Amino acid sequence: MQDAGDSVRLEPPARPRWSLWLILGLALAVALLYVGSEAFLFDGRLGLPLDDSWIHLNFARNLAAGEGLSFNPGELVTGSTAPLWTGLLSLVYLLPGSPVVWTKLIGIALFLLMADLVFRISRELGLGVGLAMLAAVLTVLTEWMVWSALSGLEIPLFLVLSLGGILLHLRERQAGGPPVSLALLALACLARPEGQLLLLLAFVDRLVLFERDPKGALVCRRGDLAPLLGGLALAAVLLFPMLAFNLAIADSPVPTTFGAKVPPSLEPGGVNLLPSLRYLHRAPIDILFRSQPYMVLLAGAGLLALIGRLGTERDRGLLLGTWLVGLPLAYGVVSSISGETVAGNFGRYFFPLYPIVVIVGVVGLERVSDLLTGGLRVGSYRAPIRVLLVALLLWPSAVGTLRGSQRYVQSIANVYDGNVKAARWLSERVPPEAVIAVTDIGVFGYMLPNRIIDLAGIAHPEARRARYQAAAEGRLADEGTLRYLGEQQPDFLAIFPAWFPALVAEGSPFTELERFEVPDNITLFSDQIVIYSTPWTSSRLPTNVP
Question: Which residue from 4, 35, 125, 281 has the fewest beta carbons nearer than 10 Å?
Fold first, then answer.
């Protein structure tokens, strides 16, 4: 598994073509397994596994139509945390055919590129072809990587940009030269906001260098600051337009989505800036461990190996390690401030760490693999120990990939049974001029011509502020929502009753019109979505629609 001489090689050798084709072939096969399962179970109909995916498509459609970054046409909003992904998706509306199909094809292409980048980074770290292939295969077989590629979310774009930036960073740190990687990492920030942390860590990793004195002791020295400042200036130029847009539209540098996902803590006693150990166990460790248990356990050894390389010919810095540790700590701080567990649906905010934990874990495996020679006799067959080790490492991922395909199609079914069916019911009965207030805006905004009011606060942050204000005054948050609805006067509500229990309790001014059950729900906020008329409903519903 380990090539002779890797311990002193300054430049990794060229990749064998066969390894590339094997990795890409496996990645394509796994992606097609998921798409095939979806097409088979839904009679050729393709969907997306989260309502957030449809939000991206709605933003992209409006951008392609010349409406700018808006959810409702003509209403600019800073609701996209991934403007670069929105811009990329807007191009699919210039192509023939289904935007959903094109979105999945883009995701698959990025998935293949991600697998190649994992291999390249592993080789740049001096790993042999066998170990580099192992890292790539483990990443490809991580169920949430496949899910992300087909989800319609920005995760695969962020992965490619962040891994590409890391690869350039490793090469630049070794060979010197201008930090072009900082510009690529700045683009990653436009795909996911946490890329800003990766950009900062990369800057520090280029600024703080190490060497060994004659006695072998580690000595810290400062890198050349001038080119780094130039790289940061270029990164700032790339990020400035989006920052200026956010400030101009919302008077805030962060998107409205941040406030919708991370509500401010109302607990007394000030702000806690320390991430809790309970959060770090429940969120990143648990999420990563479930899909890559061996790599999480080996990551500690990998981090120590990267530290041990500092100041040697194999020194490639600590960016991989600081990113792996820093992102969970950063989200832990945000969670402590907000009082909420910030991890995203299914823990997707931590999905970009899967390739990193795999690479670092395989680095930790490197020394062990060198010691594993010989074989183990099973009956009359003598199996090489390294082959058995690879099989052991791949088994959880392979099983998880197969189970993940079931979870993927179940999520699509949940979105269809809830949001899609409710939106279709409305489209058949409600005139386009009617205003509809909803909690999940993606499908409703994408399928209906109506103006949508976002009670979750992504497209309409004032709805969220009304709830916070009511709670701060010691009243029920639902009272704030009721007051906001009174100001907006929508014709209909399409909401999860469990989200607003007091709003739709007995004596509510809203009348239930239709209820949609979501069997085996693992995706939506609750397993029931209900459509209500309001005191301001101005249109009569037809009675002849089945």
Answer: 4
Quick one: DSSP state of residue 502?
T
Please tell me the least confidently modeled range out of 24-28, 323-327, 342-346: 342-346
Do 208 and 122 share a structural domain?
yes
99 vs 369 pLDDT, higher one: 99
Cα(104)–Cα(122) distance, rounded to whole angstroms?
27
Task: Name the E strands within 330-468.
Answer: 375-378, 381-384, 435-438, 451-454
* 287 and 425 housed in the same domain: no
- Residue 323 and residue 232 in one domain: yes
Task: Report the predicted TM-score, pTM, of the whole model to 2 decimal places.
Answer: 0.92
> Is residue 382 included in any domain, yes or no?
no
The two tokens of residue 170 are: 């490793």
Picking from 371, 396, 419, the residue at the C-terminal end of a domain is: 371
What sign for the dihedral angle of Cα 18, 22, 24, 29?
Answer: positive
Q: Are 426 and 492 in contact (CB under 8 A)?
A: yes
* The pLDDT of residue 285: 83
Q: What range defines the domain where residue 426 resides?
A: 410-533
Cα distances (angstroms) measured from residue 4 to each of 1, 91, 128, 298, 370:
10, 47, 8, 22, 10
**Looking at the 3D structure of the chain, how many domains does it have?**
2
Q: What is the pLDDT of residue 517?
A: 97
pLDDT of 229-247, one tens digit each? Answer: 999 999 999 999 999 998 8
Tokens of 171: 């090469």
Residues 365 and 419 in one domain: no
Alpha carbon distances (Å) from 478 to 150, 416, 503, 505: 35, 27, 6, 11
Q: Is the pLDDT of residue 9 over 60?
A: no
Q: Is residue 214 part of a domain?
A: yes
Three-state SS string over 28-56 comes to: HHHHHHHHHHHHHHCCCCCCCCCHHHHHH
Question: Is there a single domain that holds both residue 335 and residue 450?
Answer: no
Please, is 516 exposed, middle or buried when counting C-beta atoms within 10 Å of its C-beta (0-12, 13-18, 19+)? middle
pLDDT tens, residue by residue, 379-406: 556 557 777 788 889 999 999 999 999 9
Helix (H, G, I), strand (E, B) or coil at 66: coil
Alpha-carbon dihedral angle through residues 489, 495, 496, 497, given to the nearest 10 degrees: 40
